[in-house]
Inverse folding.
């Protein structure tokens, strides 16, 4: 009888061990004898089950004395940028106690200020407390909320103070939701850059992340870089659009992961968004004369953020002096208002093509002023009206991933790019061709466009994108490289047909030998662009994918295309 009992115990122990090992394998295998210093989790309760499971697994490999819980100050509460609380938290399963000794030291060092009232509605903290109490029941907490305007010096000062008071006793849990208010496909592109920040611990990329708290992820990076646990282990990457089977609606992305002992596992990729024609003069200038930023009120200001490159075709020069737009102006000699550059900067554009037939509408001085004000706003001007010059090619880089953008105007001359493309490929660079070409208002591309695009890809181009026809044209795959013949209008005052109101933005990233593209149709609604949904979105995507022999159904992910670039 005793031997049977022992045998049952051995079998039971073996099964339990197998379950634990299997759980870790599915979750992300940790190294043995780990000291985990930091983790990142979402606070949205849509993924509460996944978050709770994450903490169960985390508790098996780390047992902190103190948990530093960091969140965005979602309601901008209180008088200071960095706040904490020494209150005892009442939750359904009991109480969660603050680490008052450490909090007092932080307050005395002026790294944080206490404000219990500021935490009354703060779900970024409260939603995590039950799981923290359940899995780290002997640990106390230091709750911290950060306002969006928290500056870099404040973050560095706070991190230094935390390192001093923690002395290897703390686990930092960053309560961060990732991409917000955008379709799931676009969120996936934006998350590529945010995940690179975690993998590479890249401080320079932090400001371009599209998440709910840049200060929180900035503090996380600083904290992790001060210890030896710098290897990020991704447990889960989810999106509410995928969870709720919503391909078109606003979504939120969720990342769950932790940092273990090791060095950053560098991830080299380059993300981008490319839009069509942008013309801010004539009726656009007249309608939004007092506040050009209202033009973007139908789209989240996060739209062009969260990528390494955000590029559009600027259709016309920027005036040095105030403009006086006429309501009935139909002139083809464009003159964009002086605030155009600041508007583009506000919507997170960081590069524009000047290779078009309108860039010299105000002469050489207009062209020079345009380049000058763009540069002053940290927007790269690329291209000239005719031919190819040094300023027609712009180099970008993220990590080891190099990307060369070549812009050209083919509406008034022919250009051979083979030499330039081969030179860029010799730099081990991906090459994007952004061409102003084709026939206005034609819904399909011309034979000349196809001839050029094929020749560029034969020379080594990886992606070809076009503007000028003012309508979305069809697309093609040639040697497994995509050609988007025309993206149509992004911002323009043309309203005479539904076709000129539709536009397309392509978002994507290069990673190793892969290119992922998300198709984001947009619609000009009384001059204001907005993200298309429903049948309007579906019809544009069908127009793009059908010539590529790609099936289009109305499900999550139907707006994403993957290419192998070999």
């Amino acid at each position: 009888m005793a031997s049977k009992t022992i045998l049952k115990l051995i079998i039971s122990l073996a099964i339990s061990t197998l379950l634990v090992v299997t759980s870790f394998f599915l979750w992300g295998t940790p190294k043995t004898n780990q000291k985990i210093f930091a983790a990142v989790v979402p606070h949205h309760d849509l993924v509460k089950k996944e978050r709770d499971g994450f903490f169960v697994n985390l508790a098996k490999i780390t047992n902190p004395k103190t948990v530093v819980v960091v969140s965005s100050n979602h309601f901008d509460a209180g008088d200071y940028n960095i706040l904490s609380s020494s209150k005892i938290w009442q939750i359904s399963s009991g109480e969660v106690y603050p680490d008052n000794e450490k909090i007092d030291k932080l307050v005395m060092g002026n790294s944080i200020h206490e404000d219990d009232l500021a935490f009354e509605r703060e779900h970024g903290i409260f939603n995590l407390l039950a799981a923290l109490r359940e899995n780290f029941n002997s640990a106390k907490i230091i709750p911290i909320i950060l306002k969006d305007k928290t500056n870099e010096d404040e973050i560095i000062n706070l991190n230094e103070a935390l390192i001093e008071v923690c002395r290897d006793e703390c686990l930092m849990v960053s309560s961060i939701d990732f991409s917000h208010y955008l379709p799931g496909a676009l969120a996936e592109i934006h998350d590529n850059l945010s995940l690179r920040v975690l993998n590479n611990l890249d401080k320079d990329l932090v400001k371009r992340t599209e998440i709910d708290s840049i200060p929180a992820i900035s503090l996380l990076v600083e904290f992790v870089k001060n210890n030896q646990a710098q290897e990020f282990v991704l447990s889960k990457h989810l999106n509410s659009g995928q969870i709720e089977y919503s391909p078109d609606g606003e979504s939120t992305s969720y990342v769950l992961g932790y940092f273990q002992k090791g060095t950053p596992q560098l991830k080299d990729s380059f993300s981008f968004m490319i839009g069509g024609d942008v013309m801010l003069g004539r009726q656009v200038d007249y309608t939004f004369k007092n506040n050009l930023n209202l033009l973007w009120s139908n789209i989240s200001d996060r739209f062009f953020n969260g990528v390494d490159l955000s590029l559009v075709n600027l259709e016309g020069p920027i005036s040095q002096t105030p403009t006086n737009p006429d309501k009935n102006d139909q002139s083809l000699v464009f003159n964009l208002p002086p605030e155009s550059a600041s508007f583009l900067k506000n919507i997170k554009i960081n590069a524009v093509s000047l290779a078009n037939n309108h860039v010299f509408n105000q002469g050489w001085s207009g062209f020079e002023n345009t380049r000058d004000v763009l540069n002053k706003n940290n927007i790269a001007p690329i291209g000239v009206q005719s031919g190819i010059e040094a300023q027609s090619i712009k180099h970008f880089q993220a990590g080891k991933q190099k990307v060369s953008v070549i812009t050209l105007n083919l509406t008034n001359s022919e250009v051979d790019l083979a030499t330039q493309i081969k030179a860029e490929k010799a730099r081990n660079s991906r090459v994007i061709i952004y061409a102003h070409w084709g026939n206005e208002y034609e819904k399909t591309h011309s034979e000349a466009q196809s001839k050029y695009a094929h020749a560029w890809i034969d020379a080594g181009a990886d992606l070809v994108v076009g503007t000028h026809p003012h309508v979305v044209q069809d697309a093609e795959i040639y040697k497994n490289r995509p050609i988007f013949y025309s993206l149509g209008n992004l911002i323009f005052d043309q309203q005479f047909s539904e076709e000129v109101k539709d536009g397309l933005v392509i978002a994507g990233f290069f990673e190793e030998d892969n290119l992922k593209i998300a198709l984001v149709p947009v619609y000009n609604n009384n001059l204001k662009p907005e993200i298309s949904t429903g049948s309007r979105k579906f019809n544009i995507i069908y127009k793009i994918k059908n010539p590529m022999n790609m099936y289009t159904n109305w499900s999550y992910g139907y707006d994403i295309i993957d290419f192998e670039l070999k």
Notes: The CA atoms of residues 422 and 459 lie 6 Å apart. The domain at 269-564 is CATH 3.60.21 (Purple Acid Phosphatase; chain A, domain 2). The two ends are 65 Å apart (CA to CA).
